[in-house]
Write a structure and sequence with these properties.
Oligomer: single chain
Structural class: mainly alpha
Length: 735
């Protein structure tokens, strides 16, 4: 920690004591010394009790109880009623489970990028390895956050087990522990039923996360732990109330995005309350704002960093919640149903939280930065109000998940083959116009495209306003790539890819060959690194994480030219000639994984060949052309192999669509092989041309550099070479 904000050593009781800053510290901070009731450490002394986070549980129970009674979800069933204990116990343990899970994820987010890890924050970067970390005492705030995460992870695991047991009793209509074969039937539910498998996955993820948070302290390990915890959100989205209905993929994706935003937003608020007293005792911290370095309260720094995350999560929660409710509510009249009323109540409470967020960003956080004691006190009152509102929201959301929606979720007995296989009705026969007018928004990719567009434009505008240069052509290339990505994942090609192998191949080649060309040309990592400012207190922000991942072992492997080329060429074989193809067709997770993999594979290959973003190693130009020729030959061979096949790949899928239009499944597969060959060759040829042009430009740059050096040294190198040759010639004459 810097000398302006130093925490004294621990006493015998093991508690940290903050040393107040004096007039010299305030002067170094650019402010007058504090006096009276505001400024300096006096403002930092205003805080809340960490046990205020219990208010979220109380409010959640109140909201859950009221919503269950209003919606009728807790009423006894006429058939297979599991009993009062299960009807009320299941939503209760779900509330505990959801709150504990949000605390774990929000706490891990705080630990890896919001609060400092070590007490000595005079260093300008985080430690890179364990040798640098040896002997470094952890910061009290970091330690308190991980203590809360550890306790919450234990509660999460126990609650996940309870949810599994209660859910089995609920769906089977039996009391807990009732029946002679209860254990055997529960085991079958966990291993043979999709709902039980999803909940068992959540239990395993919670248990592994609990083990890790007790033993891991490195920031990269905590980052991986947070990423692992997101697997539970995927399982919850697939098993959620909105996993059926008329728009299966839209329901699952919007619910998953909703859960992600809630966990990082609500969890962050609860962690902020828990660590509030320690944050208030930290008198000051050195940070960088724009081109100047200033000293300000650690609480203000944490609030400013978290407010950016909270704003993004709020927008995600609001929009995804509206989309998810629209899937479940088909008409305006259905808003008057119990489900619609509860959904509207959630919307109103969410909009009220927007008022609190606006107050934070416009009034309260600037007041904390200036050391205002009154605004700091008001800040904690507003935070307490947010905690209560969030608790009510989580309770209502839990009850909403047990309330019957107006739109039925079950398949009709007369459902078409396409509806049974793909969850959607068969699209009309494709025409030139329908390829561009038929859309089915994939909300996961819509969120990805919007996020990447906003971040890139923010970075480019910041670079331009600072007076630095950034090519508008690269900006345009990035935006064109995002538009192409949106069409490939939500447009006509994506809709028909579910029923036609040829359209599936066009989608694949677009994600692998076309979209990456535009995205790599946009150089997103370079512009973002130019816009982001480095952290000065030893924490690892977005800029530090980007550099850490770029230079990590993982980054070296995926950008290795041989690995990138092999992955680009032979992952097609892995997908289309193994059971992985069936998995990607039949399961929503597999479908999204397929598109992520294709996009990532193509992006890494293009980055190695033509990108300017930093990577550990970039091959020489002859090596790049050799890799292009090899991949072109591999694509041609695979395309011809598919064209020559006499059996249909995944015939149980493409052969059972019941299409009254278009070619047969085998003829369509032959067309797909032709399209793979044709679409793959043109972008590869274009890549080869770009590599050749870059090679020529590199040679021209080298020639100009040599000419400039010769002008500076008056051709000293050339004269020395001529003199050496003259001496050699003179020696030959003498001999």
């Amino acid at each position: 920690m810097s000398s302006t904000a130093r925490t004294t050593g621990r006493g015998t009781g093991g508690k940290d004591r903050a040393r107040p800053t004096g007039g010299a510290d305030a002067a170094r901070a650019g402010r007058a010394p504090s006096s009276g009731g505001s400024g300096g450490s006096g403002a930092a002394g205003v805080s809340v009790s960490p046990w205020t986070i219990a208010a979220v549980l109380v409010a959640a129970m109140i909201g859950m109880t009221a919503a269950l009674l209003y919606g009728g979800a807790a009423a006894p069933r006429q058939v297979a009623d599991p009993g009062t204990l299960v009807r009320w116990g299941l939503p209760t343990v779900k509330v505990v489970h959801n709150i504990a899970m949000t605390v774990v994820m929000g706490g891990l987010l705080f630990a890896i990028g919001v609060v400092p890890r070590f007490e000595d924050r005079s260093r300008t970067r985080p430690p890179r390895n364990s040798r640098e970390q040896a002997g470094q005492p952890e910061h009290p705030v970091f330690r308190a956050v991980l203590q809360l995460v550890s306790a919450a992870s234990v509660v999460w695991t126990v609650a996940a087990v309870a949810v599994l047991v209660f859910t089995y009793s609920d769906v089977s209509g039996s009391a807990i522990g009732g029946g002679d074969n209860y254990t055997q039937q529960l085991l079958h539910y966990v291993t043979g039923i999709s709902t039980g498998q999803a909940q068992a996955t959540i239990v395993m993820v919670a248990a592994v996360v609990t083990t890790l948070v007790f033993g891991v302290r490195a920031l990269l390990g905590l980052f991986c732990t947070l990423a692992l915890s997101f697997v539970a959100l995927v399982a919850m989205a697939l098993n959620g109330h909105a996993s059926g209905g008329a728009d299966h993929m839209g329901a699952v994706n919007s619910l998953g995005l909703h859960l992600l935003g809630v966990c990082l937003w609500v969890g962050g608020i609860l962690v902020l309350v828990w660590a509030g007293p320690l944050l208030a005792r930290e008198s000051s911290v050195t940070s960088r704002r724009g081109r100047s370095t200033r000293t300000e309260p650690l609480l203000a720094v944490v609030l400013r960093r978290y407010s950016v995350v909270a704003l993004g999560c709020y927008v995600l929660v609001l929009l995804s919640g509206v989309i998810n409710a629209a899937v479940r509510i088909g008409t305006w009249e259905q808003l008057a149903s119990p489900y619609g009323t509860l959904a509207l109540t959630k919307l109103v409470l969410t909009l009220l939280l927007a008022v609190a967020g606006f107050a934070h960003r416009q009034w309260l956080i600037p007041g904390v930065e200036d050391g205002s004691r009154s605004r700091t006190a008001t800040l904690w009152r507003v935070v307490l109000g947010e905690v209560v509102l969030m608790g009510l929201l989580m309770g209502i959301a839990t009850a909403l998940g047990r309330t019957a929606p107006p739109v039925p979720e079950e398949l009709q007995p007369d459902a078409s083959p396409a509806r049974i296989l793909t969850w959607y009705e068969l699209p009309p026969e494709p025409t030139v116009a329908s390829w561009f007018t038929t859309w089915r928004l994939d909300w996961f990719w819509v969120a990805v495209v919007v996020f990447m567009a906003v971040v890139y434009l923010w970075a480019a505008l910041k670079v331009w306003r600072r007076g630095d240069t950034w090519s508008p052509v690269r900006t345009g290339s990035w935006l064109v790539g995002l538009v192409a990505l949106l069409y490939a994942t939500s447009g006509g090609v994506s809709v028909y890819a579910r029923v036609l192998f040829s359209a599936h191949m066009v989608e694949h080649m677009s994600l692998t060959m076309i979209v990456p060309l535009f995205l790599v040309s946009g150089a997103p990592v370079t512009v973002v690194l130019k816009a982001l400012e480095p952290r000065r207190d030893g924490t690892r922000g977005p800029r530090e994480w980007i550099l850490r991942l770029v230079h990590s072992t993982w980054g070296k492997v995926v950008t290795n030219p041989i690995f990138a080329a092999a992955n680009f060429a032979f992952s097609i074989v892995l997908f289309y000639f193994t059971d992985l193809f069936r998995f990607t067709l039949r399961y929503h997770v597999g479908h999204e994984f397929m598109m992520v993999h294709f996009l990532f594979t193509g992006y890494m290959f293009a980055l190695v060949l033509i990108g300017i973003d930093p990577i550990p190693h970039r091959p020489a130009y002859p090596m790049r052309l050799l890799l292009l020729l090899a991949t072109m030959a591999a694509h041609a061979f695979i395309g011809i192999s598919i064209m020559s096949m006499t059996t249909v790949l995944q015939a149980s899928w493409f052969g059972n669509m019941g299409r009254p239009w278009g070619p047969s499944a085998l003829e369509d597969q032959e067309l797909g092989g032709m399209l793979m060959w044709g679409i793959g060759e043109f972008p590869t040829f274009l890549l080869a041309v770009i590599v050749a042009v870059l090679w020529a430009m590199e040679g021209s740059k080298e020639n100009r550099r040599v000419d400039r050096q010769a002008d500076r040294t008056d051709d000293a190198e050339l004269r020395a070479y001529n003199e050496m040759m003259a001496r050699l010639a003179e020696g030959d004459d003498t001999r």
